[in-house]
Amino acid sequence: MSEVAAEIQLVGIEEIIDYIQRHENILITTHTNPDGDALGSQGALALFLRRIGKKVRCVNTSDVPSNLAFLNDEGMFETYDEAQHDDLVASVDLIIVDDVNVSHRLERIEQAVLRSPAAKIVIDHHQQPQPFADAYYIEEDASSTGEMIFDIIDRMDSGALDKAIATNLYVAIVTDTGSFRFERTTAKVHDIAAKLLSTGIFPQEIHEQVYDSFGINRTKLLGEVLSNMEPVCGGKATILTLTQEMLERYETPTSDTDGFVNYGLSVDGVIATALVSEREDSVKISFRSRKGFKVHEVAQKFGGGGHLFAAGAKIEGKSVEEVRAMVTEAFCDQITP
Questions:
Q1: Which domain holds residue 296?
Q2: Cβ(227)–Cβ(190) below 8 Å
Q3: Cα gap 141→189, rounded to integer Å
Q4: Distance from CA of residue 96 to its chain's centroid?
Q5: 9-57 per-position pLDDT tens digit
Q6: Which residues contact 87 (CB under 8 A, 6 or more apart)?
Q7: CATH number for the domain that contains residue 136
Q8: CB contact at 8 A, 318 and 294
Q9: Whole-angstrom Cα distance, residue 215 to residue 217?
Q10: Which residues 6+ apart lie within 8 Å of 291 measured at CB?
C-alpha cells in the first residue's frame, strides 16, 4: 500500500482479530507521552500475543512515565531510536497502533511507521480518526482502549487471561475511567474489572503505584501549577500553565505531568479547564470538562480533537501567553454566561 492510506476503513472486532491471526511478526506502538491506558492496553496485548506464539515488540516515541515503570519490569517497552529500530519497523508483518488514531501523535516514530510496508491497524476509542492505516477498529463508546483489548483477548482465548495481562488491563481501565467515575464507566466495565480481579491482582497496590509513587519534585511542581491556576469566564472555567522553565527547575519530565489538568475541574462551579503546556517546539493544550460542555468542540478550533469531555490540541508558533489568551477566549465564547 502507499505510505498513507487514502481512506478510513472501519472494521469490527472479528476483522481486527483476523488481521492479528494472519500475521506473526508484530510491532505495537502508541502515542507520545503515553498514559495508563496507552501502556496498559499495549502491554496486555503484547503479553497475550506472545502467549499465543506471536513475535511482538513494543516501541514508543516516549519513555515510560515513572509511575507506570512497574509495568515495564521486564523491559517490554522500548524507546524509539532511529538507528536501532528503523530496520525493525520496516521488517515486521503487522503494525498495531494502539490508543491513538492520528499518525502525528506518534511523533518521532511516525515516519518509520508510515514508510513501513507492513499492514497497519488501529485499535482506539477516540473520535475523528485520520487516514494512514489499513483498518480501524474504533469504539467511541468504550471506556478505554484497555476495554477493547480485553474484548479481543476474551474473543480469541479467554483462558489466556493471567495476572500479568490483568494488571496491564486494570491500569488501562482504572486510569481512563478516572478510577471508575467517568461517564463511560458502565456495568460492562465493572464486569471486566471483576474478571481481572479474579486473577489475583491487588487493586490497592496498583493504585499506589499509579497515583502515589511520584517523587517530591513532581509534587512540588504540581503545587506551583495549582497555585497559578486562573479562573476565567466568570469562574466557570480554569486555566493552568506549565512552562519548560518549571519542568527544568523541578527536574520533572513531561511524562510525569499526566493528570495535572484534572485538578482544574475540582473547583466548585467550574465546567471546563485547560492545561497549557509549553514544549520545546510547540504548546500543548489538554482540555477537560463536565457533562454538558463538549470540550472537544473547543479543541477542534485549534486543530485538535478527542472525546466529548477530554480532548487535546497542539499549537506551533505561539507563546504560552498567547495560547492562554486564545483558550480563554474560546472557552468564554462557548460557555453560556
A1: 217-334
A2: no
A3: 11
A4: 14
A5: 999 999 999 999 999 999 999 999 999 999 999 999 999 999 999 999 9
A6: none
A7: 3.90.1640.10
A8: no
A9: 6
A10: 183, 309
